[in-house]
Fold each of these.
Amino acid sequence: MSNSPLKGNMVVLDDDKEMVSLLQDFLTSEGYQVHSFSSPLDALTALRPGGNLAAERAEGDVDLIVTDLKMAQMDGMQFLKTIKTERSEIPVILITAFGSIDTAIEAMKNGAYHYLVKPFKLTEMAVIVQRALERGHLARENKGLREELKKDWGLEEMIGKSKPMQVVFDLVKRVANSNANVLVTGESGTGKELVARAIHNLSDRRASPFVAINCSAIPENLLESELFGHAKGSFTGATHKKRGLIEEANGGTLFLDEIGDMIPTLQAKLLRVLQERKIRPVGDNTFVDVDVRVISATHKDLKAAIREGTFREDLFYRLSVIPISLPALRERPEDIPLLANHFFKKAVLRHRPAQQDRILGFKKEAIAKLCTSQWQGNVRELENVIERAVVLCPESHIRCEDIMSTEISSSEQLIPSLTQDSPTLSQLEQKYIEWVLQKTGGRKDKAAQILGINRRTLYRKEREYGWVKEGEELDLEVETEKAREN
């Protein structure tokens, strides 16, 4: 054995002493630290708390277990189930002289990394061991990210350990129980509504309504009615009296998103509400008392809008008693791994909930790529990219190539990416299905999900295009290999 650093800490378990000796000698020569056992019970004792390979001990940082399937005291399958319950972070390779596809599938379902049938080549063992160790290291890195999230890096639905976000969290907690109006500023996608909801949820108003309205999403001629309500017959189509959103939020919080897009006439009416705490519905002569806290948000520079005459200065100062500025995502790259892991878990639960179809996390270079991207769309763009990667990823970990740019956003960009021709609709469909299958690594379930069709329809399309033969079935060995990969 060379004097180079050890490549990993391994356990070899087999009641065949010759096999144990062979594997120990070979793996030691490959640069691994090997702990050998002929008894499954002895191995479990060593790996459990108090044992010499327990997780809390320095030498207990076991990277991999290689175990035989047929043993006298306890078979390898039972050992696998037990160790996966107690030390789930350790990859396990099963070896046996009695191989079958059913046994292999069972082993994969019980959490084995791989399944080798004797006799096997030692070079094959070396490759599988290396891959298992890489997977184990990645799993531990992603576990570390999850542990980071358990620390005090979040507030309500917001996540961040960077100094700018910690300042925001502190400010949110300090202003929550006041009645002061808050103006949240920041680029699109930075999470301005999350700040508003956090303030509401931490305040004494949390039992009352939180009402959100996007001032730029409602036509100008309807926004006044939406905010203030209207009397029956006040205009064509007003067939009944309607309460406005300000009144709906009475006792709670009104969130006015994109306040910078509100027209000047409505700005004046909103100012009166803030000053007098009363509203008058459209077409009504009576006033209604309201008790609302107003939190507004904008991505625009309102001081520039004041200079241009498009936003009222007196309203600005009424709204921004407490200003909160959200940093762009590119200004807090240390938060990206935390956010990526959070969005990853959400996407896995939504799109790949089956245990056999789960992916474990990110490769290190993928996280590095996320951290160095510009994220013009901020947190919203990051979530979109992570969700897409989870759906399309064909392997156990998200790779750099799975992190696709969001720049392809229109048919004028997408169609040339699929073909340089001017295809017919049928040809374009064929090209698109082929592209999705390539991006999903040939996984029919994922491809069908993206295409919005069921697997039967996808198989029919493949037969139409001559990609598979009529009645062709998936080989069991292919299914087994997919089980190994997942």
Amino acid sequence: MSEPTTIFSIYEDKDHEIHQILTEVYAALKEKGYNPINQLVGYILSEDPTYITTYAGARSKIRKVDRDDLLAALLKQFLDA
């Protein structure tokens, strides 16, 4: 008997990576005393990296994520889609 084919989605992997990066950036902003939500919203709206601290490599991490992908992942999570 053959085993069923395993299906995986590159989008799920990307969303997981985005979630991990956002979690780490959020923690770094919080540790430095910033309001993480305000800082992340400022970054998303302006794409100005100075909204994100360099502490713990947070700025370089967030810049690895395309803003469109970031917004898509956030909306999917929020809307449970």
